[in-house]
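Whiteboard transcription, Tuesday session. T.W. wrote the structure tokens on the left side:
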């Protein structure tokens, strides 16, 4: 039931921001408004937990924490006169889950590594890190994780460390990342605690991210910096680079360890030890107290420093170890300390010595760094006032939008607005398989051809296409609320394939065969694993292929069933016997000893045209060749011309003319044919390619020539 005092409170104005920082030792509430570039603080309240309701940043007693938070809320409402209904809170860095893991990918031969491939491997690493974290939980406990930051620990090429993968080639590439996740259960539990005191969580951020917004000016955020929040229970560490936080860690040592050292040294309870610590840290020289034996004693500043020095040294050592681990083994450019524990005497000096940084590069940040925060609240002056102010400022800067939605292939995806979010972040949360983003060339086919290895490469794949709001984009492009992402998966290339005839050297000419004006081109013979095959036979991976380009004249006679005793053969115009080897590009001319007339050709088993002949006992007759044969006959003629000579057809007879340095003229032909000019039998007729010719006309390879007497 609401009290009269609560009923008299007015509604919380829309422009008012209420930030609540629940720490291990204290709860601080800040109410303010954002005006232009400034943040005006209207009120701030702070209470100390009456007992250790929180240990190492974790809520142990929900009711007591809720009671403390309610005190802060009530005090602020009395001062402001309106009911606080909305609240902004922050999850401490200690609730985050961090995993360092490496992902590798086999790279195709001769493929150059590009940005898309690197981003896909990084994305694969983040997904593997999330799966590794989930192993800690049972199936029923697994929940959604939001990647709040990651940094690349190292790149690897063929198992060797390399500074960058871009542009390299190799057989294996790897990326090792340190990824940090915010579990959905943490988000849910923080909401539940606020509901107990009647507050609606309007905005949820991370303490290191909020602190970054207020402690480090934008112009410095491109530098490599470490932000160290030394609280009461734990020390949260964040590494910044390129304007954002890339890695998080937590050291399980902080201000409470100092308090415990004081308690053990002076034999007092925890609260008394905390009082002694805070009093001496604030500048008091002496602090009177009563120990557990009722002895009235005095703690002096010089004794306090001696008692706490081992703890401060341990805190500095562990903090520096985690910084080096997160930052690739090297010290950052500078270190900023915040939180109540950062005021521990000697801490800055110890960190400076361990990391070998100048002392002026290890600084404690307090509210004075926030030049645009206007307030008279003294409780916010120290380093422990940074976090509540930072939550308020971050709420204003992000317009209270802690989560936002995008769609991936029409599926709604919720992202945590903790940094500049990338396309890859949305794809990870959508469960997109990185393998679908990288196209692969089809598997190559390897065979041995005439004793040499031959590779038939597979087809090129088609890369994935990524669109953001219908515009072509990439994995490392930034996204914003309500963006529409469309991803068309990559397509792998087809596997390498070939017919055996495609393995032949296309620069090697066939053998040319002309028999009584019937012409054939004879290609090579093909053998796969010692068995002769047809030219259209496909080859398989690992096949031994033999391609034979040469023939004996006997091979060709057998191929076309030509009876050697019935034929006379010449090769390039020279007489040949059946054992003569015929090489590619050479021309075989066969003349039947008794003229043969080709009858209907039948296809042979090996793909060549088989010719059969009817033998005519009479003298050879002149037969007009088929026009379809002439183009084939011109090919060997042109081939002979390339070797220096030419081949022409004179009165339907193929005539090879030897090499000559100048062009042949028509009159030169009479030196190579049997035509008696001394015994005229009428008027001589000269024709070249079907037209009348003169003795001085030039002759070219493949020309068709007619010379005869016209009565």
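and on the right, the sequence the group agreed on:
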């Amino acid at each position: 039931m609401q009290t009269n005092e609560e009923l008299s409170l007015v509604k919380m104005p829309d422009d008012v921001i209420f930030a609540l920082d629940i720490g291990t030792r204290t709860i601080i509430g800040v109410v303010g408004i954002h005006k232009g570039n400034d943040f005006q603080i209207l009120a701030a309240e702070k209470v100390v937990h009456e007992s250790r309701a929180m240990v190492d940043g974790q809520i142990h007693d929900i009711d007591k924490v809720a009671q403390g938070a309610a005190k802060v809320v009530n005090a602020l409402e009395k001062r402001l006169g309106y009911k606080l209904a909305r609240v902004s809170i922050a999850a401490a860095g200690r609730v985050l889950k961090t995993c360092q893991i490496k992902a590798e990918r086999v790279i195709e031969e001769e493929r150059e590594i590009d940005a898309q491939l690197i981003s896909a491997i990084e994305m694969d690493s983040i997904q593997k890190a999330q799966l590794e974290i989930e192993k800690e939980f049972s199936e029923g406990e697994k929940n959604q994780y939001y990647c709040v930051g990651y940094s690349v620990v190292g790149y690897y090429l063929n198992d060797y460390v390399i500074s960058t993968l871009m542009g390299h080639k190799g057989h294996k590439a790897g990326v090792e990342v340190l990824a940090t996740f915010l579990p959905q259960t943490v988000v849910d539990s923080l909401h539940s605690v606020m509901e107990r005191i009647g507050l609606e969580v309007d905005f949820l951020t991370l303490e290191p991210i909020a602190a970054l917004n207020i402690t480090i000016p934008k112009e410095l955020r491109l530098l490599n910096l470490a932000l160290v929040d030394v609280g009461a229970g734990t020390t949260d560490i964040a590494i910044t680079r390129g304007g954002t936080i890339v890695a998080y860690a937590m050291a399980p040592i902080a201000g409470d360890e100092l308090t415990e050292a004081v308690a053990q040294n002076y034999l007092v309870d925890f609260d008394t030890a905390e009082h002694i610590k805070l009093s001496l840290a604030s500048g008091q020289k002496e602090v009177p107290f009563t120990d557990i034996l009722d002895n009235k004693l005095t703690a002096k500043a010089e004794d306090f420093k001696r008692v706490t020095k081992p703890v401060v040294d341990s805190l500095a050592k562990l903090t520096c170890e985690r910084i080096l681990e997160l930052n690739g083994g090297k010290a950052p450019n500078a270190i900023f300390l915040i939180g109540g524990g950062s005021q521990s005497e000697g801490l800055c000096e110890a960190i400076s010595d361990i990391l070998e940084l100048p002392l002026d590069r290890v600084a404690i940040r307090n509210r004075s760094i926030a030049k645009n925060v206007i307030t008279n609240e003294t409780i916010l002056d120290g380093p422990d006032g940074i976090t509540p102010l930072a939550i308020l400022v971050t709420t204003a800067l992000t317009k209270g939008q802690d989560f936002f939605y995008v769609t991936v292939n029409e599926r709604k995806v919720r992202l945590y607005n903790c940094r500049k979010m990338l396309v890859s972040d949305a794809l990870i949360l959508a469960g997109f398989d990185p393998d679908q983003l990288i196209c692969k060339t089809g598997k190559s086919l390897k065979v041995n051809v005439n004793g040499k290895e031959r590779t038939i490469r597979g087809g090129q794949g088609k890369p994935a296409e990524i669109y953001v709001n219908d515009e072509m984009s990439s994995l490392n492009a930034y996204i914003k609320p309500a963006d529409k992402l469309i991803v068309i998966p990559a397509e792998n290339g087809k596997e390498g394939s070939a017919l055996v005839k495609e393995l032949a050297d296309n620069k090697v000419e066939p053998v040319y065969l002309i028999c009584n004006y019937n012409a054939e081109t004879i290609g090579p013979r093909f053998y796969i694993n010692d068995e002769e095959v047809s030219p259209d036979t496909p080859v398989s991976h690992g096949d031994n292929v033999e391609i034979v380009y040469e023939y004996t004249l006997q091979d060709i006679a057998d191929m076309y069933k030509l009876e050697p005793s019935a034929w006379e053969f010449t090769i390039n115009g020279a007489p040949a016997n059946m054992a003569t080897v015929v090489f590619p590009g050479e021309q075989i001319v066969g003349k039947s000893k008794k003229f043969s007339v080709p009858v209907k050709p039948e296809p042979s088993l090996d793909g060549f045209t088989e010719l059969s002949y009817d033998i005519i006992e009479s003298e050879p007759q002149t037969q007009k060749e088929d026009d379809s044969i002439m183009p084939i006959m011109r090919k060997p003629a042109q081939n002979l011309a390339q070797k220096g000579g030419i081949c022409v057809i004179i009165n339907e007879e193929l005539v090879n003319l030897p090499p000559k340095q100048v062009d042949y003229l028509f009159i030169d032909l009479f030196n190579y044919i049997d035509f008696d000019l001394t015994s005229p039998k009428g008027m001589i007729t000269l024709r070249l390619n079907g037209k009348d010719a003169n003795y001085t006309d030039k002759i070219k390879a493949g020309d068709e020539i007619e010379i005869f007497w016209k009565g």
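Someone added at the bottom: The first strand starts at residue 10 and ends at 11.
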